[in-house]
């Protein structure tokens, strides 16, 4: 008998799950039952689905599965930040990282969308790794399930363990469009994780055509990684700018906001690198550039990684940059680094893992020599 690949129901959007049930001759409402079991109650097997008939459970068992990606490791920082290394289906070294950052009554999960990234921003360790592969919808939503389950069995009536999701882990989410959209729909759907659309944020380095497409498909919040106030500098730091320059990106941001059903702002992310993009003139230039955009600015002091060639600015320089923007009328936050002891900060997500991979490869080699 040939081995038929089972359909992994974990990553199917509500719409696709309905299609699937109809395709196997079952009623629509079965999809609603199953989606609640998987995403609200955390079921990992069909046996647990007590309101689904035994016959249907047996049928599902034959042709489908509920499979989250494998957790290679979980670390909990002294400040409560949790970090997981998750193995994807590509092979033993195809791993990504997921980070949960608690902050008062909020807990923000930073989710990865790709193994590596093809866009090669000069200051990003994920970019330095190159592009490896896209995550599947199950691997993306699986990161949410893993984080929630790390607190014990799921309880649909208990307090939310993850209140916000940011697509700011490894990879460029708009370069893995369909799987990311499906996973975000699940994050927000009432029968799945029920997060508010204001609390699900996609961060992009500026894949302009996809910004236009995104607003047709979802109404998540948008963060744009700008990092420079002019094309000359942005071309160096964020190479995709050569294809989609700042003026086009700004136009896409305006379109995005104008087509949302409610009033929202764009979050502008600006990683501050000492002596590169953090001087007073650049702060004024940025203030001028953004003056017609409804936005808030988030400054991210550069997170160092080996051989990056960049440095984080002093606190004084960061504060001066922030003040110029604040004086120009912007709401400006400075991101504080969390999970320092487990290397969980933005842009540090892969260097550390590669080191660990090399270490584990060495270990495997040693074992092979021994045996
Ligand atoms: N690809 C998407 C999302 C992932 S990166 C994007 O670029 O927006 C998430 C954020 O971390 C981006 O704003 C990115 O520019 C920033 N970042 C990357 N490397 C960093 C580093 N070493 N220090 C600080 N921020 C970094
Ligand atoms: Fe890719 Fe974002 Fe890193 Fe740029 S900053 S290389 S787009 S992950």
UniProtKB/TrEMBL annotation:
Keywords from the UniProt entry: 4Fe-4S, Cytoplasm, Disulfide bond, Iron, Iron-sulfur, Metal-binding, Methyltransferase, rRNA processing, S-adenosyl-L-methionine, Transferase, tRNA processing
GO MF assignments: 4 iron, 4 sulfur cluster binding; metal ion binding; rRNA (adenine(2503)-C2-)-methyltransferase activity; rRNA binding; tRNA (adenine(37)-C2)-methyltransferase activity; tRNA binding
Pfam families per the UniProt record, alphabetical: Radical_SAM (PF04055), RlmN_N (PF21016)
Keyword S-adenosyl-L-methionine carried by entry: yes
Note on cofactor: Binds 1 [4Fe-4S] cluster. The cluster is coordinated with 3 cysteines and an exchangeable S-adenosyl-L-methionine.
Residues the record lists as binding S-adenosyl-L-methionine: 171-172, 203, 225-227, 303
Domain annotation Radical SAM core: ranges: 103-341
Cross-referenced InterPro entries: Aldolase_TIM, Elp3/MiaA/NifB-like_rSAM, Methyltransferase_A, RlmN_N, RNA_MTrfase_RlmN, rRNA_lsu_MTrfase_RlmN/Cfr, rSAM, rSAM_sf
Residues binding [4Fe-4S] cluster, per UniProt: 117, 121, 124
Required cofactor(s): [4Fe-4S] cluster
Cellular component GO terms held in the UniProt record: cytoplasm
Biological process per Gene Ontology, one example term: tRNA methylation
Additional detail: Reaction proceeds by a ping-pong mechanism involving intermediate methylation of a conserved cysteine residue.
Function per UniProt: Specifically methylates position 2 of adenine 2503 in 23S rRNA and position 2 of adenine 37 in tRNAs. m2A2503 modification seems to play a crucial role in the proofreading step occurring at the peptidyl transferase center and thus would serve to optimize ribosomal fidelity.
Family: Belongs to the radical SAM superfamily. RlmN family.
UniProt name for this protein: Dual-specificity RNA methyltransferase RlmN
Organism: Marinomonas algarum
């Amino acid at each position: 008998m040939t081995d038929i690949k089972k359909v992994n129901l974990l990553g199917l959007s509500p719409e696709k799950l309905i299609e699937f049930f109809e395709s196997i001759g079952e009623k629509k409402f079965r999809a609603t039952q199953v989606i609640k079991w998987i995403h609200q109650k955390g079921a990992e097997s069909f046996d647990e689905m007590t309101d689904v008939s035994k016959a249907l459970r047996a049928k599902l068992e034959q042709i489908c599965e509920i499979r989250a990606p494998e957790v290679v490791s979980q670390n909990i920082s002294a400040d409560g930040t949790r970090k997981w290394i998750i193995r994807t289906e590509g092979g033993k070294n195809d791993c990504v990282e997921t980070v949960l950052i608690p902050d008062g009554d909020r807990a923000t999960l930073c989710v990865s969308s790709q193994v590596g990234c093809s866009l090669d921003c000069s200051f990003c360790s994920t970019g330095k790794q190159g592009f490896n592969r896209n995550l599947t919808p199950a691997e993306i939503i699986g990161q949410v399930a893993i984080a929630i389950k790390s607190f014990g069995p799921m309880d649909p009536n208990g307090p939310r363990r993850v209140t916000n999701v940011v697509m700011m882990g490894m990879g460029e989410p708009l370069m893995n469009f369909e799987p990311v959209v499906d996973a975000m729909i699940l994050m927000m759907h009432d029968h799945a994780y029920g997060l508010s659309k204001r609390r699900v944020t996609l961060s992009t380095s500026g894949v302009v055509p996809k910004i236009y497409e995104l607003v047709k498909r979802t109404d998540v919040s948008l963060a744009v990684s700008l990092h420079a106030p002019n094309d000359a500098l942005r071309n160096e730091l964020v190479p995709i700018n050569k294809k989609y320059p700042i003026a086009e990106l700004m136009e896409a941001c305006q379109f995005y906001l104008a087509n949302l059903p409610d009033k929202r702002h764009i979050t502008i992310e600006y990683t501050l690198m000492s002596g590169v993009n953090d001087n007073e003139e650049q702060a004024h230039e940025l203030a001028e550039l953004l003056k017609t955009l409804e936005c808030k600015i988030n400054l991210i002091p550069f997170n160092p990684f080996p051989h990056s060639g960049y440095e984080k600015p002093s606190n004084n320089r960061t504060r001066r940059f922030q003040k110029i923007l604040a004086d120009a009328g912007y709401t400006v936050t400075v991101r504080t680094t969390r999970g320092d002891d487990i290397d969980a900060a933005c842009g540090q997500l892969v260097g550390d893992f590669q080191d660990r991979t090399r270490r584990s490869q060495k270990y495997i080699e040693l074992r092979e020599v021994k045996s």
